[in-house]
Amino acid sequence: MAQKINPLGFRLGTTQNHHSLWFEQPKNYSQGLQEDKRIRNSIQNYVKKNIKIPSGVVGISRIEIQKTIDVIEVRIYLGFLKLLIERQPKKTEKLDMKKITELQTKAIEELPMIVQKELNPINRKLKIKIKRIPNPYKDPNILAEFIAEQLKNRVAVRKAMKKAVELAKEVDAKGIQIKIAGRLGGNDIARATWLRKGRVPLQTLRTKIDYCCYTVRTIYGVLGIKIWIFVDKE
User: Residue 197's domain spans which residues?
Assistant: First the structure.
């Protein structure tokens, strides 16, 4: 039987980079790792609770953390500008570039205060930068959130998967593969279903494969969503 491996870890150093960049003494490594986890959780929880999004999709692609001796830089990659504006979701499409840059520099005033509480007791300056990714539906994390919201609203599993594939193909993804497992449709026996469109060469190291593993809680139980997206060759 084939041995499964995480596609992102498999390609570290070739087409993938680390999301956390810092050095620490071996005895303090676990503390730094837990600090990164708390920072990411606090940002995601704040966005879910305080920023109202009609679609329910948070739209956070990834959170990168870079630490130096006296500075912690957190870069949040967003798929939608709705996260940068509170209570004005209908006006986001009409924003000009000047307004976008202003929002990126100002970001959310409360967020640095919340993240600062999760840091280890060391005097370090916190910098938060918000960047927008050009094609949100080319990112597996955002697609997984989209499917999760569809499943919570009791949309058929195959219909939600096909819609996600259509969104990925619209932004010129070369291939996409989706797997959902659990009590699909409320059935008593758990099962897994797959959907694949285009090429997804998982064994070729020089191909850039974006991967996401997402858990969603429905009224029937917990469902697992896995998405592989073939972006391009390096």
Answer: 136-230
How far apart CA 43 and CA 77 sit, in angstroms, is: 12
pTM of the complete model: 0.81
Token pair of 39, please? 């920072």
Assign residue 36 a region (left: φ > 0; alpha: ψ between -120 and 50; beta: otherwise). Answer: alpha
pLDDT, one tens digit per residue, over 203-224 is 888 889 999 999 999 988 999 9
Q: How many domains does the chain have?
A: 2
Q: For residues 23 and 42, is the Cβ–Cβ distance under 8 A?
A: no
